[in-house]
Structure formats: structure tokens, C-alpha cells
């Protein structure tokens, strides 16, 4: 069953507009009632109403921010401070954690009811023994091999799936999109019915992926949940090898939700003229923080070399003790 928001477009919310950023191409959703001079949450370019594009579908639900701006600034500062040693000088000079902005990121949540059939082979050790002379011993294992099949029903609850194609497309040469997924999970159970008033000063990102488009991702995530459940229920101490697996989705329920993220972004312009988008993301509920900062390669090399030398020194010391 699809809930209405997943397919409908709300014509009423006329003060909610979507603008294509001319700096980086992001599709940014803003509330014109509270933001006259909005900036792109990725590249900080001022957004121009001239490049307005049609709104995406209205979300069903929103998880309101819990962390304040001040708390987010503190999280970003702590994250960067821990990595100061390797950070690019320019990044340190321009570091302004107060620029962190609140963004609602579009996700699809899915509840699913599925049936899994998984089959393979498992081994249980029956004996372990050694053969050979004193200085040339080999250890042998005897094991029984069993054919294992598991057939079961299971449910998943609030599986969280990316619904902006720009972020689902993870080109690690140009950006670090995958960082957002590392600050999951969110307490999605506390999401409330969407209301444009939650937008306030926050921006959002246009959802442009529909249920059919994210279905393959949902299917493969559910399959790996099924595989895990099947593995957990066995006692094969010598390992388990699944060889065939099938998943039948009996029913799904989808909810389009906005999740709160504090974002600090930094554009690194490389010497070859290319640009790399770095950012530090803070979960707007839990404070979980992850990110990337531009590093100075010579400094990293120097540290790697130093560690390498120390390890070599230890290895030599061990050899010398024999
Ligand atoms: Zn931008």
C-alpha cells in the first residue's frame, strides 16, 4: 500500500519552492516565508529564484531537529579538532563551524513482510588432530558437511532508504555522499506528520526517486537481513556457505520522510582545477558525527613513513631476540 504523500504533489504550499543551485547543481527546497536570502547547504552559493524548478513530491512525515545549532557547531568543531594534524592548511584557516546549516534529507522508510528461502552447506568439526614428526607437524580437522535450508517469514520495520538520486549516486571522486549513511540510524518512530512549518530556516533536498526506483535497493537490503537471520539460527562452527536464496515480498508500506542533518560543507579546489566536496554531517537527533576533511598528503605520508619505520624497528628487535 502506498501512502498518499509518496505519489502526490501538494499544490497548496506555495511558499515552499525548489531551486536548482547554480554552484553545484543540487536541488534545494526552501521556505520563502522565512528565508529571503537562502544559500545552498552544500556549496553555500546564494540561491536565485530565477532557477526555480518544480517541487518534488510532498513528504508524509518529518523527524524534527533535536540538536540545536550551538550543539551542532560544537560537534563539528570537535570532529575537525581531532583531525587537525592532517588537515589542509587552507581548510584550517577557513574553518568556520558556525556556518553549519540544518537540512532535512529525503528518505523513504519501508515496512516489509517477506518470505525467504535460503539454502547452502554448513560444516561441524568432529575431530582435530596432528600428524607428522616433532618439527613438522600438521593439524587436521574432520568435519561433517550438512545441507542446510531455511524457509521463514519475517518482517522489517522502518528500513531507511536514500531517495535523492544525486546522493544515491555515490561518486567518491567528486563527493563523499556515503557519509550521510554513516550517521544513521535515526529514531524514525518519533517522526510526525509533515507540515511545511517545520521547514522554518532549514533547507531540504528534493526527493526525485520513487518507490519503483528504490525497490531494488530495498530488496537487496531485505535479502541481507534474511541471510543474517538464517545464519544466526545455525550451529555450524566450521562455517556456512549459502548457495541459493530467494525473497518474496508479500507486502510493503512506504513512508516518505525528511530526516534532520546538520551539515558543514567545504569545497576543496584541487591544483588540477577539479573540486571535491567535503562535509561533516551531524545527526540532528543523536549528535552522531561523521565526515571528511581535506588532508595534506605530505603530512599523511610523513606519518605513514614514521609508523612504518617504527614497525620495522620492532620487527628487527624481535628477530634479534631469537
Ligand atoms: Zn550548491
TrEMBL record:
Organism (species): Homoserinibacter gongjuensis
Q: From what superkingdom does this record's organism come?
A: Bacteria
Under which name does UniProt file this protein?
Answer: TFIIB-type zinc ribbon-containing protein
Amino acid at each position: 500500500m502506498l501512502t498518499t504523500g509518496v505519489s502526490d504533489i501538494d499544490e497548496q504550499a506555495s511558499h515552499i519552492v525548489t531551486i536548482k543551485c547554480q554552484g553545484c547543481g543540487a536541488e534545494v527546497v526552501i521556505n520563502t516565508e522565512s528565508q529571503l536570502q537562502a544559500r545552498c547547504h552544500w556549496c553555500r552559493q546564494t540561491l536565485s529564484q530565477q532557477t526555480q524548478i518544480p517541487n518534488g513530491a510532498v513528504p508524509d512525515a518529518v523527524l524534527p531537529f533535536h540538536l540545536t545549532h550551538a550543539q551542532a557547531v560544537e560537534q563539528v568543531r570537535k570532529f575537525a579538532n581531532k583531525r587537525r594534524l592532517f588537515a589542509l592548511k587552507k581548510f584550517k584557516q577557513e574553518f568556520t563551524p558556525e556556518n553549519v546549516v540544518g537540512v532535512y534529507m529525503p528518505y523513504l522508510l519501508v515496512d516489509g513482510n517477506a518470505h525467504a528461502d535460503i539454502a547452502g552447506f554448513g560444516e561441524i568439526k568432529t575431530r582435530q588432530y596432528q600428524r607428522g614428526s616433532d618439527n613438522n607437524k600438521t593439524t587436521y580437522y574432520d568435519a561433517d558437511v550438512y545441507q542446510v535450508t531455511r524457509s521463514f517469514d519475517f518482517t522489517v520495520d522502518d528500513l531507511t532508504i536514500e531517495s535523492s538520486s544525486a546522493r544515491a549516486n555515490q561518486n567518491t571522486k567528486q563527493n563523499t555522499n556515503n557519509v550521510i549513511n554513516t550517521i544513521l540510524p535515526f529514531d524514525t518512530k518519533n517522526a510526525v506528520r509533515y507540515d511545511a512549518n517545520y521547514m522554518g530556516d532549514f533547507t531540504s533536498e528534493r526527493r526525485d526517486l520513487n518507490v519503483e526506483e528504490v525497490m531494488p535497493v530495498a530488496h537487496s537490503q531485505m535479502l541481507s537481513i534474511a541471510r543474517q537471520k538464517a545464519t544466526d539460527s545455525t550451529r555450524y562452527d566450521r562455517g556456512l556457505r549459502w548457495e541459493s536464496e530467494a525473497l518474496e515480498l508479500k507486502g510493503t508500506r512506504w513512508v516518505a520522510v525528511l530526516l534532520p542533518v546538520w551539515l558543514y560543507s567545504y569545497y576543496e579546489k584541487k591544483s588540477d582545477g577539479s573540486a571535491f566536496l567535503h562535509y561533516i554531517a551531524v545527526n540532528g537527533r543523536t549528535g552522531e558525527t561523521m565526515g571528511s576533511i581535506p588532508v595534506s598528503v605530505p603530512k599523511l605520508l610523513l606519518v605513514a613513513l614514521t609508523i612504518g619505520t617504527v614497525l620495522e624497528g620492532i620487527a628487527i628487535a624481535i628477530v634479534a631476540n631469537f
